[in-house]
Amino acid sequence: MPALFVLALALLGVLVAYPMLALVVTAFTHQGSPSLHHLITALSQSENLNALWNSLWISVLATAGATIIGTALAWSVARTDMPGRKVLRALFLIPFLIPPFIYALAIQQLLGPIGYLNRFWRELAGGILFDINSAPGIIIVLALGSYPFAYLTMLTAFERLPVELEEAAQISGASRWHVIRTVTLPMLAPTIGAGAVLAFVASISNFGVPAILGFRRGIQVLTTRIYEEITRGVDSDRLAVAAALSLVLGLFGGAGILLQRLLSGRRKFTLISGRGGSGDIMRLGPFRWAMTSFGWTFVILTSILPLAAILLTSLLQAPGVPLSLDAISLRWFERLMVASPRIQQAALNSLFLAFFAATVTTLVGTVLGFLIGRARVPGAGFIDWLATLPYSIPGTVVAIAMILAWLQPIPLLGFSIYNTIWILLVAYVARYLAFAVRGSLASLQQIGETLEEAARISGATPWQSTRDVLVPLLRPAMRSAWILVFIPALQELTLSALLVGPRSQTLGYAVFNLQDGGLINLAAALSVVMLTGLGILTVIVGPLRSGRPGVS
Amino acid sequence: MAFASPETLSIIGQQVLDVALDNFEALFETHIAESRLSRPSPVLRFALIFQSNCSPNPTPRNFLSAYPACISPPQEKRKVSIVKRLLRSTAGLLAALAVAGAALAQGGTALIYTSVPQNLIDVLEAAFERDNPGYQLDVFRGGTAAILARVSAERQAGAIAADLIWVADPSEIIALKQEGLLLEHSSAETEALPAAFRDPDNQYFAGRVLGIVIAYNTLMVDGANAPQGWRDLLDPRFQGQTGFPTPANSGASMVTIGALLASEDFGEEFIAELGANGMRQLRNNGDAAQMTATGEVHASIGLDFQIRGLKEQGSPIDYVYPADGAVFIPSPMAIFNTSENQDAARAFVDYILSQEGQQVLVEEANFIPVRDDVTGPQGAPAADISQLEIDPDFIAENRERILELYESNISP
């Protein structure tokens, strides 16, 4: 067993600590000595400053939008008597299930300059309704993509908020508005804050949405700026500047996480103080139908129409053909199936990567979780921090760290894993390790040590008691960690965009590359296939992804 | 959960997922308890994907297949540990991969880096593999600039992964030759090429000819108003409606602007005038063709074969070779001298240059052929069309200036 621990720790060192260190060292070293040179260079180029500024204001506005939408939707399903709220409650989560870059592509089909809605509008009124290829467009798509964070946290809050306090205020004669303002909102503030921080980090980390909607208009954010820097070459100067830029990006992501930790700490305190039941349901009276229709309109506009649009594009015979039944064809799907060896290879690569990333993270993460939560080795806190670090910072930062760490040939082995599928695997494992570590930690907390102690008393060795008692109890957590890694890894784009090699393209990258090369219909067809596959997969494995330990 | 993908979900641990889980559980329980549905609606099933399989309220079995596992704790049912099963399946997959790898190693497989659009290089790959049993082609496609950045990155990392390169801009290949990176190749097929299409030292060969055209959307621009030459793009009717792919990505654009710049008839002022008439920067040739086909721009500078392809598919698009100075770019291919798959690489070059290969290029990809004994595609230009001269040395020397000229005049 010690060998297992050493192996897990060594992997953590090689896969996470070393690349992260390489990133920091590269960013702060110039000509062999510590220096702020690269940071200053990076931030003195106007395009980088511009990207930083864009990242900030776009993410802040997207966050505000996400928070308002998420809170309003959560309130409508949790605290009103709106008809159909149970169905809507699930439907409001559809954007959570669509990879963001596919969502961007789908909305582009509706609201691009020649999108279906804009064309319709042109017929009706002339001009265009809205151009999604713009900063406001990026904000809207990011907000729609990240409101589920706010929605989910707020749902919990609305449902578990102690009702007594509100009731007490009402009994004391406060008006409804007064109660909301002085009791409900202050209690909810930390939760709203936590949801907002998650949405902010999600927005500022996003690569696919600004890349798809912003490139055409030259709108750069930090993630796309770093991507451009890297795709124009990886000589040492560019790498150093990219490293410095990713540190800036990581700083904002990291600050967000710190804030989130603070807020979630306080929020827990609020919530645990009372599980007051379902809360105060507001009777909307005649407005309840208005509210429902608003909810359905929202679902149709933000989920159903974009999905229908991308499906329609995938069925169109050629770009620009006027819409008619004659223009519908399956030729792009046919092309995917019979004449796209690269895409088929990409599908295999993604399956390979997702499978092994899930397997390795599950095994290593469980061992690390054990070390942190059960063996309580010295430095457990640091191990935990290190293992969750790559998931707390934007994926772009992780990818740059991987390039820096693995570009040169590995000593002794004499070859470089850069440009091969292995650097992607390494990056995926580092990125998703947090899922497995956190899952096994959460699970260990709920499994008493008494069972293992009983085994030990009955004469089992430490290894036996772990293997026969603990591991079976951890199995559901491992299973769920595996699935939690497998599904996002299958559709990964941010890491892939920076790390793909000639023979290691992934599905996410394939969609991105096709739309970048102007093959929109083919990109749409591949997206439809991916969404269908993910949907089926989620339905099949979804029930397995319980994070609960197997103790009843 | 897909939106919980890496791009968006940069959060500590599983916090949000836990929240999600709690919620779905609550949602699920209340729904089942209250609605007395014998079978949940599709919508609910959608939500159920997050559902814990050990919910206190029993659920109908017919859709939650994993549910019975909950009634009896999983650890009693399954004797084989998940670790073992994972290892076992891992081993199985590795074995399968090893077999696949061995199968690949038997034939010669060359890796090409190319700017030929993905759909077309896929077709050429299939034709090559069909006509050359035993040889295979692997492809990495990107813009000329991205391909060359990748090559330079790989030289840094120790070795160029590619065996072959085939891009749009001849000056880039000449630079590779001057750095001593290319392999000499001579065969009956290379000998059959007109001298203009091959390097005197036999290190690179034009595999196709790219014709630069003005593409226009036929729904937006009617035939009478169609542009005929470069100067028509300065007409007020195209104000703000045209686009030019950026030379930062496209080798063809780099060469085209270089040719305009070097020409006495056009020069720097012409680029400025294009900018003044509201010409827009476009990402790359593929995007430009797509945007023209859909009418997002009314006209754009494009590659002839791409526009022919879209027109064939039925897109409302047409094109002209500019009458006041057409640009034809011999698009060069070369083999790296570091190639470890030289046989396959040579076979591919010979195939592309052969009469049958050129025939495939013409028929499947609409390229202008490099051989005199192959007839060009329908719509190929007349031989006597007036042309701008292409000078690779001039382009190599002026690359920065061309980029600067483009970016300062053409608006994003």
Features:
heterodimer; A: 552 residues; mainly alpha; two-stranded antiparallel sheet; 23 helices; globular; B: 412 residues; alpha/beta; 45% helix; 14% strand; disordered N terminus
Q: Helix and strand layout, with pairings?
A:
The complex is a heterodimer of chains A (552) and B (412).
Chain A: H1 2-27, E1 29-30, E2 33-34, H2 37-44, H3 46-78, H4 85-91, H5 100-111, H6 116-125, H7 135-160, H8 163-171, H9 176-205, H10 208-214, H11 222-231, H12 236-272, H13 287-315, H14 331-338, H15 341-375, H16 380-392, H17 395-406, H18 421-446, H19 450-457, H20 462-490, H21 494-499, H22 507-516, H23 520-541
Antiparallel strand pairs in A: 1-2
Helix pairs in contact in A: 1-12, 1-15, 1-16, 1-17, 2-12, 3-4, 3-7, 3-9, 3-11, 5-7, 5-10, 5-13, 7-9, 7-10, 8-9, 9-12, 11-12, 12-17, 13-23, 14-23, 15-16, 15-18, 15-20, 15-22, 16-18, 17-18, 18-20, 19-20, 22-23
Chain B: H1 15-35, H2 42-48, H3 68-71, H4 74-77, H5 82-106, E1 108-114, H6 118-131, E2 135-141, H7 144-157, E3 164-166, H8 170-178, H9 188-191, E4 204-217, E5 242-245, H10 251-262, H11 267-276, E6 280-282, H12 285-294, E7 299-303, H13 304-313, E8 317-320, E9 327-335, H14 342-353, H15 355-365, H16 392-397, H17 399-409
Parallel strand pairs in B: 1-2, 1-3, 5-6, 5-7
Antiparallel strand pairs in B: 3-9, 4-7, 4-8, 4-9
Helix pairs in contact in B: 6-15, 10-11, 10-17, 14-15
Topology, number of strands of chain A: 2
**Most strands sheet of chain B:** 9 strands, mixed
Large-scale geometry of chain A: globular
Task: Flag low-confidence runs of chain A.
Answer: 267-275, 545-552
pLDDT < 50 runs, ≥5 residues of chain B: 1-79, 102-106
The average pLDDT score of chain B comes to 79
In N-to-C order, the SSE pattern of chain B is HHHHHEHEHEHHEEHHEHEHEEHHHH
What is Rg of chain B?
28 Å
Query: What oligomeric state do the depicted chains represent?
Result: heterodimer
Beta-strand residue percentage of chain A = under 5%
Structure class of chain B = alpha/beta
State the order of secondary-structure elements of chain A, H for helix, E for strand. Answer: HEEHHHHHHHHHHHHHHHHHHHHHH
Terminal Cα separation of chain B, in Å? 35 Å
- Counting DSSP H or I runs of 4 or more residues, the number of helices of chain A is 23
The percent range for helix content of chain A is over 70%
The major beta sheet of chain A can be summarized as: 2 strands, antiparallel
User: Portion of residues in helices of chain B?
Assistant: 40-55%
Q: What is the alpha-carbon Rg of chain A in Å?
A: 25 Å
